[in-house]
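Changelog-adjacent note: as of this version, every example in the card shows the full chain rather than a window. The one below runs 428 residues end to end.
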Amino acid sequence: MKRKCSLLLLSLLLFVNLVNAQQIQERLAVMPGVSGIEKLESQHYPEKYVLCISQPVDHQNPSAGTFNQRVIVAHVGYDRPTVMVTEGYGGAYAMTPRYQEELSKLLNANLIFVEHRYFLESTPKSCDWDYLTVENSVNDLHRINTAFKEIYNGKWITTGISKGGQTTCLYRAYFPDDVDFSVPYVAPLNRGTEDGRHEVFLRKVGTRKERKQIEAYQKELFKRKAEMIPLLTEFCRANKLQHRISMPELFDYCVLEYPFALWQWGSDRSLMPSADAETHQLFDHLMKVSGPDYFADNQPNVSFFVQAARELGYYGYDTRPFKKYLTIKSARNYLDHLMLPAELIGKVDYRPESSRKVYDFLKENDPKMIFIYGEADPWTASRVPDFKGKANQQIYIQPEGSHAARIQTMPEEIKQQILAQMDAWLEE
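Full-length structure tokens:
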């Protein structure tokens, strides 16, 4: 009898899951502005779909037209919480069957993944840069949140990584009541296009021996610049990279970028060639860590640089140790003249209002937010402030961690503390 009951219960659960799967697809199809629903394969989620949602190009001026924003939906259950990923870039990687977002895994939650406007499939046909603003992007998220709450009415969590983490913070500052809590990963809060704190951070990160080794490597690269330029030229040709500056200038920027890139991604410092290594070994390592694709005219993330120059901020370079080797006269304003679209060079002024809005929001309120950072990640130099007396704002820094710091990479004690806090918030 017990065996028959178990089989009956299993059959019932399978039937309920099938009905739920049919329902979610049907419910997505009747949402206002939704089009192009496609089922996706997933190794982790029972049901996964991609769709487009029509959004105003300018939320303050509907007559400016509309564009389709790509959204990926992973359905677990109507009784589960919902994680909303405020992606800062394109969302193609989330389309793959192996993709699994950390919070949705830890919390067994539904997933709403929102590709950022002006990236990949979410780019308006007429790419007017005036409409790529923080205010428009957070309104995109607010409209999607409002629409999906008709389907998922449980707890909501926002999360994002790096620029996506910035977007999480900005969205929360503009619409503090849209979600129950937020978990931004490695999210900077920059003060300007050349914030100033990152250079100081790089002069202190790691050990003194590591920093001296890095500077010695950079200087050896500069000493062999004449040998390096033909290699760089061929590298750019082979990879079809286009640049608006000369090869010697480009080489300067690749070498200046090296320590930031090295620490950001936690690259193995033991793989750094010694000063007496062959030229091709020095060059190959540089290309692996801070290659010229980052500065290319045909760089796929040009929309990011527009946002960085206008509202999100960025970092500068410390050129002082290398003055006698440089072809460039200065690295000042490099974001403007090197990385913006040609039509915007010299025409974009940084607006500090968005950064101030997040700062003031965190200072004056105590939203439920868990901030994850890596100790050795240069972006941690411009992390959110640790305001005293805030019970809900919690900052966790992974020891020796990089830009890849996550809850799962934290020491076990800290990981369990974070999980316990999220569980407590979900039960409230």
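Structural remarks: DSSP finds 13 helices and nine strands in the chain.
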